[in-house]
């Protein structure tokens, strides 16, 4: 996606980080790419200004960059994981935030990434923040992340199917997930027939 001229340098920084991440993990950057595509479609449907779409896109492209610090065996482990392993997986959000926060972006990219597993009702992580404390872009990213994750094949399991993914976001609509974003996502997936590209 071409970014506007003032953001070109930031997109280049993001591209460099992704290239580095791809050296050790062939899966996560593809998941991030697909999530970014869906997030941008939701943002456009909700008429987010072009500047904020750029930031949403870049944030989504690196939202799981903190997974570069998690052992690949754990990221790709099939079947059930232990509570301890889940605790380790969750640290990717804080790692990612700290990495991205080193860069003086003139916008809230690191904050959006920090919030991508937070929920409106405060039941998410790492900080358990809620409601208005969650940037709108992160609410979009959260919904796109869930739909991409469930509808795509992952290294540790096959796709659960788009119908199951859409049922899941409808189940969480208004409690954990922003209802406006859920409705926009349903529209985009159904009207534009969005599907993740098989990796
Ligand atoms: Fe994540
Ligand atoms: Fe993700």
From TrEMBL:
PROSITE patterns: HD_GYP. Coiled coil: none annotated. One of its GO terms (molecular function) is phosphoric diester hydrolase activity. InterPro entries: HD/PDEase_dom, HD_GYP_dom. Residues 6-199 form the HD-GYP domain. SMART domains: HDc (SM00471). It comes from the Bacteria. PANTHER family: CYCLIC DI-GMP PHOSPHODIESTERASE PA4108 (PTHR43155:SF2), CYCLIC DI-GMP PHOSPHODIESTERASE PA4108-RELATED (PTHR43155). Pfam families: HD_5 (PF13487). This is Two component response regulator protein. Transmembrane segments: none annotated.
């Amino acid at each position: 996606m071409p970014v506007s001229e003032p953001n070109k340098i930031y997109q280049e920084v993001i591209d460099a980080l992704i290239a580095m991440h791809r050296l050790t993990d062939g899966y996560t950057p593809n998941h991030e790419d697909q999530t970014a595509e869906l997030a941008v479609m939701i943002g456009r449907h909700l008429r987010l200004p072009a500047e904020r779409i750029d930031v949403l896109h870049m944030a989504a492209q690196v939202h799981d960059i903190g997974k570069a610090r998690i052992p690949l065996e754990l990221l790709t482990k099939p079947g059930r994981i232990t509570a301890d392993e889940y605790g380790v997986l969750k640290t990717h959000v804080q790692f990612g935030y700290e990495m991205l926060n080193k860069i003086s972006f003139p916008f809230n990219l690191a904050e959006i990434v920090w919030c991508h597993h937070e929920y409106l009702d405060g039941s998410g992580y790492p900080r358990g923040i809620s409601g208005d404390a969650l940037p709108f872009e992160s609410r979009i990213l959260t919904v796109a992340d869930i739909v991409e994750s469930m509808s795509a094949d992952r290294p540790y399991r096959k796709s659960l199917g788009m119908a199951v993914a859409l049922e899941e976001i409808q189940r969480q609509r208004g409690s954990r997930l922003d209802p406006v974003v859920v409705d926009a996502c349903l529209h985009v997936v159904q009207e534009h027939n969005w599907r993740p590209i098989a990796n």
